[in-house]
């Protein structure tokens, strides 16, 4: 097995094309064609984590956070980022980061938070826009079923809990092959009319190349007529944050105790308690101040996130309680998800959960 095969498993689950534009995900260090020795799964890639990978004979580090976020202009070892990268390069260790691709996944970071809190009826808090595309194509009636099947196999036609969704219209197509054409149907230099089916399917943006490959490979015509558009619809299973409900409404202090225990938080900063029971909860792992308004609009009782600033607590406006449980704490189970997933996909290589503690924040 080579490193690229591990990356394929990761991107089948959380494609890097679904990450946020500001992010830096994917293979950050190393050669994907290198033979795999072992995988170390971590939350952050620090110099100590690279040393752990060396000691455990792992030449691929799968990290939630990217060690390289903004561009590196020098590699002199003058800061923790440069030292980690230099050590990885010297020891032929590849580094792959997944970050917001997993944040945006409906079974990713925020689903873990919901599951750990026992929340039910979960859904995305801020569904992602601009990631649903629509393909429309035209195919002879006799070949329509086979082409539609191949498009479905490539990933088209999935809408929420439904697969193999399409819209089909019967009509008549016309074309006139020129003298250098090689028509499947009809004759050169003669106009031809064909009973056709117009097939329309939607698909997530990151599957575009796969969908088009299936279209061109399985369409009978020499020249394939098709249209691609990006829809304004939000993707209901992709996006930031998540909403869920507790099985039973509980007191605010009881819920804070549950959150503190669940995420092993040494302290929780929160806005004014509203002296009412809570049931509907929103979560967003990592820095989540940008989602406060969305949480208010959703009518939740509590919003659990991290990295809130002083004025963010005012934005609660006594409509909900916003709580900062710590960046690392909110994401602490993420590496376990990655480790479990890769262990199931790759059973004949060592998939090791890093022991190095990477939380930089300490409490007195």
UniProtKB/TrEMBL annotation:
Q: Which residues form a coiled coil?
A: none
Q: What is this protein called?
A: GTP cyclohydrolase 1 type 2 homolog
Q: How does it assemble?
A: Homohexamer.
Which source organism? Gillisia hiemivivida
Record family assignment? Belongs to the GTP cyclohydrolase I type 2/NIF3 family.
Instruction: Please name the taxonomic classification of the source.
Output: Bacteria, Pseudomonadati, Bacteroidota, Flavobacteriia, Flavobacteriales
Could you say which residues bind a divalent metal cation here? Answer: 65, 103, 327, 331
Keyword terms, alphabetized:
Metal-binding
What cellular-component terms does GO give this entry? cytoplasm
Molecular function GO terms recorded: metal ion binding
């Amino acid at each position: 097995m080579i490193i690229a095969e591990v990356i394929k498993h990761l991107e089948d689950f959380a494609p890097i094309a679904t990450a946020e534009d500001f992010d830096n995900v994917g293979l950050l260090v190393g050669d994907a064609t290198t033979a795999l020795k072992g995988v170390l799964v971590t939350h952050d890639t620090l110099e100590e984590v690279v040393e752990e990978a060396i000691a455990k004979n792992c030449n691929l580090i799968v990290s939630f956070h990217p060690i390289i976020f903004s561009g590196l202009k020098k590699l002199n070892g003058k800061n923790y980022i440069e030292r980690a990268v230099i050590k990885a390069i010297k020891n032929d260790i590849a580094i792959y980061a997944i970050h917001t691709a997993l944040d945006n996944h409906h079974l990713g970071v925020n689903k873990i938070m919901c599951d750990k809190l026992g929340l039910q009826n979960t859904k995305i808090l801020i569904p992602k826009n601009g990631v649903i595309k629509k393909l429309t194509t035209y195919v002879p009636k006799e070949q329509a079923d086979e082409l539609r099947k191949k498009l479905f196999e490539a990933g088209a036609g999935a809408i929420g809990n439904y697969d193999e969704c399409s819209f089909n219209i019967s009509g008549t197509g016309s074309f006139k092959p020129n003298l250098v054409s090689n028509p499947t149907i009809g004759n050169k230099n003669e106009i031809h009319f064909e009973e056709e089916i117009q097939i329309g399917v939607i698909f997530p943006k990151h599957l575009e190349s796969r969908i088009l490959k299936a279209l061109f490979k399985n369409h009978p015509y020499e020249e394939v007529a098709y249209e691609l558009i990006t829809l304004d619809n939000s993707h209901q299973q992709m996006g930031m944050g998540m909403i869920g409900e507790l099985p039973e409404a509980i007191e605010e202090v009881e819920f804070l105790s549950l959150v503190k225990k669940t995420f092993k938080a040494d302290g929780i900063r929160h806005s004014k308690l509203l002296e009412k029971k809570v049931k509907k909860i929103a979560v967003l792992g990592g820095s989540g101040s940008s989602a406060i308004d969305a949480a208010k609009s959703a009518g939740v009782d509590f919003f659990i996130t991290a990295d809130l600033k002083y004025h963010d607590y005012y934005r609660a406006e006594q409509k909900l309680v916003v709580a900062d449980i710590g960046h690392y704490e909110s994401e602490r189970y993420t590496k376990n998800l990655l480790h479990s997933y890769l262990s199931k996909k790759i059973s004949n290589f060592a998939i090791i959960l890093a022991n190095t503690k990477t939380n930089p924040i300490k409490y007195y």
